[in-house]
Specification:
alpha+beta; four-stranded antiparallel beta sheet; about 55% helix
Length: about 600
């Protein structure tokens, strides 16, 4: 093992731990890893910058932007909203919901499909008196299963395709050079279909008949908020002149408020918890309550006695309502303290309560660092909805958008343009036709007045693009250091007793899938892709396609944690799930999918 290999192992360990523990924002974690690799000479500046010009990564960015445009047309909203009738039974709803989203995901990308469907699914469960925890996780899993069916259904498939036809990788691996010579654009849009489509059907049947029985039946967080007062917290402030000053908790009638519980008092640097009924209230005390929404609103109507801190306060208005949203992965608020977020100024709303996957938060709300997946209870003004819809900071759950009319001709032109781009690419009309076609379609959205330029600009997920570009560089570093050959040797040695390529495929799948559980799926495939290529080279195989498919599908199918795949995190808070729920329901699905992927690849590509 040379020094460069040791450096690579240390950097990979840093990436996995940093992403899993959320030590820094994902982008900063990757930047630090790249800086370390560059300083130790494992990669050069061309390796770092090369990913920015990778055609497949640019196509991923364009497809995500077009998915966001389609989402804003409300066409999918209308389709999904009309399918979920109240008269459906639970089983009928589950079947219809999973069939619908799994058929939309291959064409419109799985993340926006979940974002659009989530308020409809959540609302149906609430109206029927069914726990959202019985429907939200199947929504995520069904879109994941459907998204894997095509090249464009998930960015993971596209990213692996980018790894396969990357110029540097092609030079490093002869098998990839041969692959690119035969397939200049890499895998076709339906390369995944013979494997992922039957597995999507099997997965949905598993969720319908087995997984649904393993799902917990918990109250949704908003209902639980009314009964379990320790789930949410609301911070109030005792101003000068308050009638409470000098009284104890019992005398101020703060001990037995309707639907409220006084969790703790923060006094200067001291935290008092539990709070004694004899505790004397002082000026500038911070009183942390938890309780019912209506009672919280009542508290705000007496600002002379108790008020919200400046970062949560909302001036009295004619129109104010409570909204419930989930913080998205792309939110600018991730990692920002509530008191520093200027939430009211930016969104015409105030954060009055926070729920984080059952964790009891203590201390001042203003000191809470917001995280993707946080469930926020907001006191919102009239402008909030329009501002939130225009941003990518939130997913609505309990308050779905009204279904607005949309121009069917414009939507048809938009979707038709995307399909035409892929058809022309499939026939290799000219080099780069897919990229050119998608750019043209996106540019046409402005003159057609589907969206304006600022909305297109906001839809560009530049952070994801940079992370993918740096992931390519990490993959190159693994190859440059010959760590891929070392890991490939370990993998082949570990499976030597099985004397089978199928066993090697199982090993690659497991390695990718386990890494995806602790880091992101993009990180997992970036690490295992060069190892998979080195492994097949050592085995003397010449067609990399089955190994490319294995890595991609293993990265797509992260069903056992809420953090490895974005749609899993999106439903985490609204479903009121705990980490163990993903293991209970996802383990069987993971096992089925792994066996299915390896079996079908082996049969289709004659690997024994």
């Amino acid at each position: 093992m040379n020094n460069q290999t040791i450096i690579i192992i240390c950097v990979i360990a840093f990436l996995i731990i940093g992403l899993y523990k959320e030590l820094f924002r994902p982008l900063l974690t990757f930047i630090l890893a790249i800086i370390a690799l560059f300083l130790f000479g494992t990669i050069n500046i061309n390796d770092v910058l090369g990913g920015l010009a990778n055609e497949q990564l640019i196509i991923i960015l364009l497809l995500l932007m077009l998915s966001d445009v389609i989402k804003k047309t409300n066409a999918l909203d209308a389709i999904i909203g009309r399918l979920f009738h109240r008269r459906l039974t639970y089983k009928q709803f589950m079947a219809r919901m999973m069939f619908t989203v799994s058929n939309l995901a291959p064409w419109f990308h799985n993340t926006p499909v979940v974002a659009i469907a989530m308020p409809h699914v959540y609302g149906w469960a609430k109206k029927k008196g069914i726990s959202p925890s019985k429907v939200m996780l199947p929504l995520s899993y069904a879109t994941m299963l459907g998204g894997a069916v095509t090249l464009i259904g998930t960015s993971t498939n596209m990213f692996v395709n980018g790894l396969a036809i990357d110029n540097t990788n092609c030079k490093n691996f002869k098998v990839l050079a041969d692959f690119k010579a035969m397939h200049p654009s890499g895998l076709s849009i339906f390369s995944f279909t013979p494997i992922a489509f039957p597995l999507a059907i099997i997965g949905i049947l598993y969720l319908l008949y087995i997984g649904s029985k393993l799902l917990p039946s918990r109250q949704d967080p908003l209902s639980e908020f009314k009964e379990n007062t320790r789930e949410y917290m609301v911070e109030t402030y005792v101003p000068a002149g308050s009638s409470y000053i000098g009284k104890n908790i019992e005398e101020a009638n703060l001990r037995n408020l309707r639907g409220l519980f006084l969790i703790e008092i923060v006094r200067k640097e001291e935290t008092l918890s539990p709070v004694s009924p004899e505790e004397i209230i002082e000026k500038d005390d911070i009183l942390i309550f938890a309780g019912e929404t209506d009672t919280i609103i009542d508290l705000m109507k007496s600002p002379k006695d108790l008020t919200l801190p400046k970062y949560s306060d909302m001036p009295q208005r004619e129109f104010m309502e409570v909204k419930e949203v989930v913080l998205s992965n792309r939110s600018r608020l991730a990692g920002v303290k509530i008191r520093e977020a200027n939430f009211r100024g930016k969104y015409d709303a105030a954060i009055i309560a926070v729920n984080r996957d059952g964790e009891r938060l203590t201390g001042k709300i203003g000191e809470v660092d917001l995280r993707p997946g946080d469930l926020l209870l907001l006191l919102a003004g009239a402008d909030f909805k329009g501002i939130a819809d225009a941003s990518n900071d939130f997913y609505f759950i309990s308050d779905g958008k009204e279904i607005k009319n949309y121009n069917k001709l414009k939507v048809a032109l938009l979707i038709g343009g995307i399909i035409a781009s892929f058809v022309l690419s499939a026939f290799d009309v000219m080099p780069g036709i897919l990229l050119i076609g998608l750019v043209v379609v996106l540019c046409m959205c402005v003159p057609l007045k589907i969206v304006n330029f600022s909305e297109i600009r906001r839809s560009a997920d530049l952070e994801l693009f940079l992370i993918l570009a740096m992931s390519l560089a990490i993959g190159k570093a693994i190859h440059n250091s010959k760590a891929d050959e070392l890991f490939a040797g370990w993998l082949i040695g570990g499976m030597e007793g099985f004397h089978s390529t199928i066993a090697i495929l199982f090993g690659i799948y497991l390695m990718t899938n386990i890494l995806a559980m602790f880091a992101t799926n993009k990180t997992a495939v970036a690490i295992t892709f060069p190892i998979a290529m080195a492994t097949m080279t050592k085995l003397g195989l010449t067609d990399p396609t089955p190994f490319i498919l294995c890595v991609a599908l293993a990265g797509c199918a992260e069903f056992m944690t809420p953090f490895g795949y974005q749609t899993n995190l999106m439903v985490y808070g609204p479903g009121g799930y705990k980490f163990v729920d993903y293991i209970k329901v996802g383990f069987g699905l993971t096992l089925l999918y792994m066996i299915g992927v390896v079996a079908l690849i082996s049969i289709i590509y004659h690997l024994y």
